[in-house]
Hints:
Largest sheet: none
Structural class: mainly alpha
Number of strands: 0
Radius of gyration: 37 Å
Distance between the termini: 117 Å
Number of helices: 2
Oligomer: single chain
Amino acid sequence: MKIEIVVDPTKPAPAASLASRVAPAPAAAAPPAEAAPRTGGRPRRGRGGGRRKGNERPQKTAADLDAEMEDYTASNAPTA
């Protein structure tokens, strides 16, 4: 079986189909460049990034907090 398609060269090419005109253009598959690994700091996008460092100050004891509160109340006591 032989099929022959005859096209008139004076007529313009048929318009592209609706599906090809509406569909998004195919993205070019470029290999991602290897970037230096990020350590810490603010992330560029999305979630993630570095974790916060631990508290560098030593934790106060209850006795330290009580002493600070006594100093505060003694210095701010109203004079009546």
